[in-house]
Amino acid sequence: xxxxxxxxxxxxxxxxxxxxxxxxxxxxxxxxxxxxxxxxxxxxxxxxxxxxxxxxxxxxxxxxxxxxxxxxxxxxxxxxxxxxxxxx
Length: 88
Hints:
The protein is mostly helical. The protein is built from four helices and no strands. 20% of the residues are buried.
């Protein structure tokens, strides 16, 4: 069982890094819609493991991507989500 749990953890970390790298790549290229897709996938992983710090950073980065798309309603929504998360 411990080996299976470790394997699942490793797989989640690989997914996280791939989502982050894809987000950065698409964001840097100005393809904010694709960047959002990958950060939403990263958000799902952060929610599964219950990591509020990752969720907070993800909400902030999503808000920046939506800001670049000039979708200010979503920009504000994600900034507010980042502030609502408990610190600990």
